[in-house]
Amino acid sequence: MHQEKRAPKTLWDAYAFSVGYTIFTTCIGHPAERLKVAIQTNLAQSAYSVITQFAGVNVKHFSTGFLSCVVRQLGKVAYRPLLITQMPKEIDKLQLSMFSGGVLKGAIASVFDTVVVSPIENIKTVQMKTVASHTKPITPFQAMNTIYQQRGLAGFFSGSTPTLGKAFPSWFYLFMTYNAIKTKREKQTFLSTILWATFASAPVAFATTPLDVLKSQEQAGNKGQQSLGQLAAQIYKNHGINAFFRGFNCRLVHKSLSTAGAYMILDMAHKI
């Protein structure tokens, strides 16, 4: 029996999928993101203490930063399909080795991602650092005003160094793991893709969590006049090595969802 030929995918298909998937992951992943930032920016309290303070509180408090997350994620939709679909194709034309190509792709994607996302990341972190039992929720505009008053325009790019440091291995790992497991994932279900993404994301999420903690601390305004090295030394002195891995579980939830989405967009890219 003649099988109907499927129409080739287009860049617009990638964008359409990105919008829908972004809405889905933002709604599902926001609670994890909210808890992660609160845990990482309140190191004087145990993770359990921070989490229990959100139990039974007003939904409005738990949803603090949701609008900022939506803006951040929709902003990513504007350029990430290009970074994930078109940019790798252009790099592949250079006929570099898989490793060298992955390094170049990761470098371009991480620099672009860091520059574009940093302002809204800072706003989100200032909002989310509040713990439910201590401070009233603040709006994005209040967070913007706080950042500008305390740190000026440069404050909207606080945490760029650790952000870039954790973004590069994440992007590099994404491109490398996609190629490594692509044949094993073909014709599998959405849940299978999530499972593959979780296994693929766990090592890089664990390895980059210390940088994520430093990023959150810096964006929350806890760095002061210290260098990044001095901030790391202070965290280690006051809270021990475990503090650098605070929020890993929450990060893994978010990372797994975003990696699965990236895999599916890359699948589309190969059909364009």
UniProtKB/TrEMBL annotation:
Gene Ontology molecular function, alphabetical: citrate secondary active transmembrane transporter activity
Keywords: Membrane, Repeat, Transmembrane, Transmembrane helix, Transport
Intracellular or extracellular location(s): Membrane
Domain of life: Bacteria
Cited Gene3D superfamilies: Mitochondrial carrier domain (1.50.40.10)
Entry GO terms, CC: membrane
Major subcellular site: membrane
PROSITE patterns: SOLCAR
Membrane disposition: Multi-pass membrane protein
Signal peptide: none
Matches recorded under InterPro entries: MCP_dom_sf, MCP_transmembrane, TXTP-like
GO terms, biological process: mitochondrial citrate transmembrane transport
Family designation: Belongs to the mitochondrial carrier (TC 2.A.29) family.
UniProt protein name: ABC transporter substrate-binding protein
Protein's organism: Legionella sainthelensi
